[in-house]
Amino acid sequence: MPAAPQRAAARHLERGRRTRYRGRMMGRDPAAFQVKLKAAVDALDRAGVAALCEELIRELATGEEPYPRDWARRHLKTLRDGRFFDHVALVADWFLRMHPDEAWIARDLAQGLIDNGHVTAAIAVLERVRDGDLAPAIRCEVVGLLGRAHKQIYLDGNPKLDQTKAALRDAIRFYFEIYRGDPKEHSWHGINFVSLAMRAERDGVSGLEALPPATQVARDILGVIAARDLEDKLETWDYANAAEAHIALGDHAAAGKALVKFVAHASVNAFALGGTYRQLTQLIQLDTRSAEQQLLIDIVRSALLHRENGGFIADASEVRERADPGHVEQGLERVFGTESFKRRGRTLGTGFIIPGTALDPAWDHQVLLTNNHVVSRQPMIGQLSPGEAEIAFDGVDTGGPFRVAGAPLFESPIRELDVTVLRLDRPVAGVAAIPLAAALPAISTPPPRMCVIGHPLGSELAFSLQDNHLLGVSPQRIHYRSPTEQGMSGGPVFDEQWDLVAIHRRGEKGIPRLDDATQTYDANEGVPIQTPLASLQPDDIVLDDLPDDVVASMQVRDRWMAALPYAEGGLEFMFADLQAWTPGQRLRVAFLGGTTDLHRDVEQATRSIVEACNIELDFGLSDGQYRTWSPNDTEHAAEIRVSFDQAGYFSLVGTDSTNANIGNPVAAVGGLAGQRSLNLGGFHVARPQTWAGTVRHEFLHALGFHHEHQNMRGPCESSFRWDDDAGYQPTKDNRGTYIEDDAARRPGIYTYLAGYPNLWPKSKIDFNLRGSKDSSGFLAGPFDRASVMLYRFPPLFYHVHPSPCAPAGDGQELSDGDRRGLALLYPRQAAEVGSAAARRENLLKALEPERGLESTAGRSPLAQSAVARLRDSLKLLGA
């Protein structure tokens, strides 16, 4: 944008044009949405906030006009004040798409990115905005955030590296630039300059000699604050700034008095408390061995308990120095088995190991317990998927981080038990198993003591030591006053004997009492360890579940295919010619993980497929080993790339596995060389009884076959019970699975699959279950009830019994129809090969520039890819 229009746009944006918003969110307007968002944030309802933000984003994607700036500003401020920074970044990104020149949205986006660990991305956003014609107030905030971002680079990095030292110098200069412009108005920037400059002096970082002494600036700031006090104009941050200035001058008593006033201020919120906590512990590095300095931290921590799961926390080294040795030391060996979950090196939660047999006699291995809002098979905002989680242990040398092996062994969603049980990719040596309490503690006088262990705010292993006691007990929940912070979710809760009692899940202000729901108290909440044991059930129906980004790209491709002219296929299967391989082609198969025995079993299960058609599956067997592939590959090691480490079972369809248009290039699943194309989740840990049928089902997908229940010639579309029985009252079991209500009314498919274990939105249900439409992109013949491609759905899926959509086969072996389909699509006879070539020629004519969809062939990467594949296939067929 030229300079003059950019300045004009910036001035226009700062004025903030008011417009009536014509889009409505689920029947509500932005004002009503703000009320609900504020209520969810104030209640620390993370799942509720996530759902509201997803609703808002859907509305932003479909609204008729740009979202009103004033309401966007309020929504972002509410999320920021509540420290929901992952949602700040997500929502701000969408707002910025609508208002790309709004500097204050870019500011909020950058702040969300910084607090989520994406510092370099935040710097890029801020540097772009900084070059514009900004209002003075916005410019100060932008430059201040640049200081904050560079400060975080220093705090996160190795202080001995030159680039890390350079980040500290940049942070100091950014803060001083704003402070120097108006010291009376920008004491917050000035106090950051003070604390950073003193940190630079302690760490021996030079090159700042031209700047004034930090102690002099600290005195100047105290003078400004004193003048405001005389005029009765002190604001919230003035007390925190005064505390830091007193610390810089060595007056910890005065700092304590200022912090007491800060945390008691009516307008202080979790955002302010969290920032001050980081400043005291990470930047200033108060000495917790000093009672005087420890008190300063405790003042802020105690205030956090009432706002976001906060309170008095001691790290592992402090336990030995401050706690009663007889009460704690005996438990240290046990709690060293506590793990932290990380995404790209950032700690997001806590978990712990117990013997698998304590949960299920068949689990003769260690299992790891955590919260479902930490790790989930269907991750939402702020959650980790099993495949991306890294697990690091504190206190023992384990030779590097651990990964999750396959799909979760058990899950209960956030709004139910909020528990996930995982198996790690290798045994953990040197960690003593945590003993389970024989029974829940009972309420007594005085109440029993409790202790939670975890990683507060992503820091090192910590123990809650003060104000710890039991508040209430029920079969589903346990409440306790044991100070925690964000990041301790999933940690173990211990009784006085250091036996495991519960899994910590959250803290909340005004939570209903367990003994009297009409009364409330401020409490932390855990799930009794006995509860998930009774929830494990083996009969859950888990459907094929491709990642959302892959589904999105497939939907784009399928809509394009549906636009092709109609052609009759007349075959007993659901098949897409545009996703077909060439008859006679050799398809390489490679494995990521798993043992040689597992690879051999998979290969043997596919032999019936190879015997039925003219396709070779080459597993690369050499010297007793099968072909492997790596996520670092830049060339396709194989057309079919098998993995076992993602959640669930799925496969890309046919040539999608080598189609760069399918999936997100940086995701785990897609058509690029380093992406998974077929997944048998958890097979390397344990296989279901129907494992061979699952292998055949997924490999038929890999050869181009679709689900039989989506056959447009079949009865399933009309046989399925899509909607609930009339009058159904949503009812779940203790794991979150929708079940019949008290009047025996059943949930419909949309409701059932929205619950545990699938947790699907309507769009995903439609994509996976609704019938395909007639087009030359798909071929289909008579419906085959015996096909291995037909799901065995539970009875509640059908209107009548027996249903014409219900399977007639065992789901393990190929049906006669499956074999006929394979033989017809990948024929051996010359005449049949000619028929396959003729179909490809007809499709090519519809796509070539001189015919049919010539306007799309030159522009659409989907059309270009299809034309190239069809031409290559015809060459191989000699046509």
Plain-language structure description:
The structure is a single chain. The chain has an eight-stranded antiparallel β-sheet with strand order 1-10-9-13-14-15-12-11. Strands 6-5-2-3-4-8-7 form a seven-stranded antiparallel β-sheet, with no helix packed on it. A five-stranded mixed β-sheet has the order 18-17-19-21-20, with helices on one face. Helix content is 40%, strand content 11%. The protein is built from 30 helices and 22 strands. With 879 residues, the chain is α+β, with helices and mostly antiparallel strands. Helix 7 packs antiparallel against helix 8 (136-156), helix 14 runs antiparallel to helix 15 (291-305) and helix 28 packs antiparallel against helix 30. Strand 7 and strand 8 (419-422) form a beta hairpin. It is globular and about 90 Å long. The protein has five domains: 22-127, Serine Threonine Protein Phosphatase 5, Tetratricopeptide repeat; 135-233, no CATH class; 309-536, Thrombin, subunit H (Beta Barrel); 548-825, Collagenase (Catalytic Domain) (3-Layer(aba) Sandwich); 830-877, no CATH class. The chain starts with a helix and ends with a helix.
Which structural class do the helices and strands define? alpha+beta
Strand order of the biggest β-sheet: 1-10-9-13-14-15-12-11
CATH architecture identity of the largest domain: 3-Layer(aba) Sandwich
Strands, total number: 22
Number of domains: 5
Count of helix runs = 30
Helix content bin: 40-55%
Based on Cα principal axes, name the global outline. Answer: globular
Average pLDDT works out at: 74
Task: Classify the fold: give the CATH topology of the largest domain.
Answer: Collagenase (Catalytic Domain)
Can you identify the CATH superfamily of the largest domain? Collagenase (Catalytic Domain)
How far apart the termini lie comes to: 52 Å
Could you name the ranges where pLDDT drops below 50 across 5 or more consecutive residues?
Answer: 1-28, 305-340, 342-346, 455-467, 483-487, 536-540, 560-575, 773-780, 849-859
Radius of gyration: 30 Å
> Mind telling me the CATH class of the largest domain?
Alpha Beta
Largest sheet report: 8 strands, antiparallel
Residues in β-strands, percent: 5-15%
